[in-house]
Design brief:
2 domains, elongated, about 260 residues, tt1808, chain A
Length: about 260
């Protein structure tokens, strides 16, 4: 498998192009006669170690395969466009919402309340519909060489976009209120979010304890991540435009469409 992955990486890097292949073709190329969860994990891991991006993910999500054998995936080694460009054409009243004004007086007593009373309303204001959310999404992965099961608090899709129907746009990691005040807890949450990236082929993460909101670029390279945005809940109303253009539904749909085109 290492030899096959190395040849694919060499072809992509040398040519400077992306490759679009059917799932069945990719599986067969790696010598698998049928699709299995272990096979999908092995292919994803071998390619990721050579910094080959695979979008969307070929992993089994929850209890089903989101990709059919005839669906195509994109393999690339491209340097991605900077997502931090500032835009200001959402309109003057985009943040004219009493929800923002009331946030300073709200108390979220548990991690569950952070998810239901802060994260979900925020995602709605970022353009995501209820059908775009997959709450508590589980998938099998590797921790070192050992198989493990991971679970995201919330994964976002574009359920109304056929091209991106199987692509995870954003993963959200929610923590109990004020949990991320400690740097060690923030680093742990960042690392946890990064652990989802390779297996889900997701490039962006949002980490929050309701007081702090942080956006991560999970794929500046395979091993790293960058903080693209950070603000306190008290400043969210003033910076919602900036947050929207980083991880709002429409901007991310455009981003991933360009990635897999």
């Amino acid at each position: 498998m290492i030899k096959i992955a190395s040849q694919i990486a060499k072809d992509i890097i040398t040519s400077g192009n992306v490759k679009r292949v059917k799932v069945r073709t990719l599986i067969k190329k790696f010598g698998f006669k049928k699709r299995t969860e272990d096979g999908a994990r092995s292919i994803t891991q071998e390619l990721s170690e050579l910094e080959i991006y695979l979008n969307p993910s070929i992993m089994k999500i929850g209890d089903r395969w989101k990709l059919s054998f005839d669906d195509r995936v994109t393999l690339s080694h491209e340097k991605r466009k900077d997502q931090t460009e500032s835009k200001n054409n959402l309109g003057k009243n985009f943040n004219d919402d009493i929800w923002f004004d009331d946030l300073g007086d709200r108390e979220f007593r548990t991690e569950r309340e952070v998810e239901t009373k802060f994260v979900i309303p925020l995602l709605s204001r970022l353009g995501y519909a209820e059908d775009d959310r997959y709450d508590g999404m589980t998938f099998k992965a590797y921790s070192g060489s050992r198989p493990t099961i991971l679970e995201t608090d919330c994964s976002l899709f574009a359920s109304d976009n056929e091209l991106l129907d199987n692509q995870v746009l954003l993963v959200v990691e929610a923590k109990r209120e004020d949990r991320l005040v400690k740097e060690v807890e923030l680093a742990k949450a960042q690392k946890q979010t990064k652990s989802y990236a390779i297996w889900l082929s997701c490039h962006f993460g949002l980490v929050t304890d309701s007081r702090k909101i942080q956006v991560l670029d999970l794929f500046p390279n395979i091993g790293g991540m960058n903080v693209l945005f950070e603000c306190h809940i008290s400043d969210l109303k003033n910076r919602i435009n900036e947050l929207y253009y980083l991880v709002g539904k429409e901007p991310l749909v455009e981003y991933y469409e360009n990635l897999v085109a």
